[in-house]
Amino acid sequence: MLTYRTFRNADPPVLAALWRSRPDQPGLSQPVSLDLLEQLVFAKLYFDYDGLVLAHDEGRPVGFAHAGFGPNESRNWISTRSGVTCLISTRPDCDEEKVAAGLLERSEEYLIRRGARILYGGGIGPPNPFYVGLYGGSDLPGVLDSDHVARRALEARGYRETERTVVLRRELSGLEVATDRRQMQIRRRMIVEVTADAPTQSWWEACIFGEFELTRFELRPRGGGPAIATATFRGMAPGGGATLGRAVGLIGISVVAAHRRGGLAMFLLSDAFRWFLRQGIARVEVQTLKADAPARATFSKLGFRQVEQGGIWRKER
Predict the structure, then answer these.
(1) In whole angstroms, what is the distance from residue 82 CA to residue 111 CA?
(2) What pTM was estimated for this model as a whole?
(3) Which end of the chain is more exposed for a tag (fewer CB within 10 A), N or C?
(4) Cα 317 to the chain's mean position, in Å?
């Protein structure tokens, strides 16, 4: 008989064991440890015991689901107007569809009870309250296509996929970035400033990325003035550690509106990759919406290849 209950203080080892029961599932960071779960999940200021539900079959833990909320407009606390089921995880040796259905139902009940009018399946920034660094790539990708159990559970409860995400990767060994006349002109006019161990820029960003080493690149006119393009990367492992062989993930890139479509993003990213290569970084990961054709074209020119796709699922009450 399946039973469900909310999180208790003694549950972290149980959750870690459930996570490790799926060693071959793409998108799940392995091996997970209690310290990682504490850093990236339980230590969040907005972690709510009622939002994490565990399933048991005759007393044996067989799955869990975790729901939460994104930030308010000021990004200084959460907003409960919409909620997200960040993760649904089941053991492979149980009735997965039945367990997942029960977990999702209780996750929805929690979100609705807190006031959510719009429900999402799978997190993506900014509603990415938990599991950045543990699921997906540089950020939460919604629900990965390889996450079959979660996708079927969401579809069965009336969610519809509203957007597609693409997870991309680029190895930096043998980096050769083509330089054309436009790129050379930008180099004559602009300079790239690098801030290692960059500070976070909002309370929400500190909550999500504060455990990771951030590096920020800003493109500025050589004569001085504000940045006209910015790119921020995070170390893919919490806390940094030894540099050689590490990976970084692009978590944000922006170009001032008046300067877009001038090759500045390509220039800034190319310069960032050269800098990372000198630091011993082996790989860069990035995520974008499949519908964002300009971004995908830029990443393609920079040598990225697709490693996974995901979907953002939505349901209104």
Answers:
(1) 8
(2) 0.94
(3) N
(4) 26
**Looking up tokens 């922006």, which residue turns up?**
254
Q: Where are the beta strands (DSSP E) in the chain?
A: 2-6, 52-57, 60-71, 78-90, 118-121, 143-144, 160-171, 190-196, 214-221, 229-235, 247-255, 283-289, 305-316
Report d(CA 134, CA 142) in Å as an integer.
Answer: 13
Q: Residue 29: CB partners within 8 Å, gap ≥ 6?
A: 36, 133, 134, 135
Dihedral of the alpha carbons of 275, 210, 229, 128, in degrees to the nearest 10:
120
Phi, psi of 202 (to 5 degrees): -160, 165
Alpha-carbon distance of 281 to 283, in angstroms, equals: 6
The one-letter amino acid at 224 = G
Helix H segments across 114-143? none
**Closest among 52, 74, 69 to 61, alpha carbons compared:** 52
Residue 257 CA to residue 263 CA, distance in Å, equals 13
In Å, how far are 14, 15, 20, 64, 273 from 10, measured between CA atoms?
Answer: 8, 10, 17, 14, 43
CA–CA separation, 235 vs 106, rounded Å?
A: 34
**Could you tell me which residues are beta bridge partners of residue 250?**
233
d(CA 82, CA 162): 15
